[in-house]
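Chapter summary example: a protein plus flavin-adenine dinucleotide.
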Amino acid sequence: MVPKLTGRVLYKDDPGWDDARKNFNQRFDVQPRAIVYCQDDGDVVNALRWARENNVPFRARSGRHSYEGYSLVDSGLIIDVSELDHVRVNRDAGVAEIGAGSYMLQCAEQLGDVGVTTPLATGPTVGLAGLALGGGFGLTSRKFGLTCDNVLAVDLVTASGEVVRADAASHPDLFWACRGGGGGNFGIATQFTLRVHPVSAVLGFIIQWDWKQFDQVVAQWQAWAPAVTDGLSAALQLTVNKTIKLYGMYTPDDPSSVHAGAGQLAPLLQAVTPSSPPTIQPLPFIIAARMFFGEGGHTVDPAAPQWAVHVHSDQQIYKSTSAAVMAPLPGDAIALLRSFLENPPPLGATPVQVSMIQLLPGGGAPSRVPPDATAVYLRDALFIIQYDGYWMRPQDADPTIAWVERMRSTMQPYTRGAYVNYVDSCLTDPLRAYYGPNLERLVRVKRQYDPQNVFNFPQSIPLHVP
Ligand SMILES: Cc1cc2nc3c(=O)[nH]c(=O)nc-3n(C[C@H](O)[C@H](O)[C@H](O)COP(=O)(O)OP(=O)(O)OC[C@H]3O[C@@H](n4cnc5c(N)ncnc54)[C@H](O)[C@@H]3O)c2cc1C
């Protein structure tokens, strides 16, 4: 029988088409042939069969946050799982079943309602599928591990149209690959079973320094942030507006010891005196999570549905990339970072978001997982550098992209690899950068589960090591 598309199917002339085809990053103007919003596994199976039968290219899509728009394809079918968004928690067992299309704010709220969480990204509308399949970290990762370290099972529709549950006992190779190498590569995830952790009070903080303290702050931060107690996650945001901001939270084992987080911050604050009194405040976890979802200019209305709250997507245009830092940056490398931020390309219009470099701390629980236990190999990084360039006018695109690319390549002598969830089309050897020594095993899993390379996009896992 010829397969039919089932679920909520949208075509070019349907109302809402233009919103439906947008990525969070407005850099991409893609015209798919159709978008199917799957309502259950059967819709995913039908969509995949339809695409294969009709020889139509397709992409899986969850939260639409791929930095390079890899969840979109011109003239193809978008298999969208965003309406598979249930959150079912068994608090006693410490486990939740979450639809692959759930987004961060929704996960945080619904898990928070029963007093638990799992490591989530700080972008409020990032999708669970993209996050967890590529690794995933957030402000509780140093304590609880990467998102993928908390995945107990993934339900997927494979290339053959079979619905499988991959876990430690069943399809273990696929399970391994889907924890760090799974985005768009092996099948379409429909649900994750995740470990969840009790959480209540946390200590939130935002601390600022003067630009003239840049070199000292970065030097002290990199010696401190990756080594502090697991409960503390402190990211450093350095912007072209010459602001230095440390933000994060301390998640204690026991809520009554939440104030101990201030003692953990003390060595950094004593080493470099902040420019204004630090904001350090005990907060219910969910309030802190909402606050950090709003960090960086996002505006979020927790009462509204996903795409209605996505106001920050309307004008966001950017290029981002990343690298891992394995040893403390020497003084000249820190000075290079400062110099790039002091000399951004001139822009003809003020972007929604200011261009920046973010330093995201490593160490903690993720660093104690062996580099070959999942597809994520950069486990012993001191920190991840994220380079973000934003603009508004089309003519500012090329200079800003070139500036981001120059930062990444100039810093390369001091860095290693790249984080696959910050996909970057400019990388010359992207697969080795994302997967390091795990690439060979990922290719073997690819041959086993997708021998015809049905799941392919510009940086997908190929059938042979390049
Ligand atoms: C504003 C912002 C904040 C971010 N913050 C963080 C952060 O704090 N921590 C962090 O780790 N990362 C963060 N990221 C990066 C984010 O993890 C990745 O962009 C991730 O891939 C997004 O997933 P998505 O589902 O939203 O995107 P999508 O664009 O929908 O998908 C991303 C990739 O996954 C594939 N995919 C989507 N759904 C499925 C599925 N069901 N089955 C198989 N493959 C699928 C797509 O084909 C695509 O290749 C952030 C990104 C942005 C833009």
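Key point: The first strand starts at residue 8 and ends at 10.
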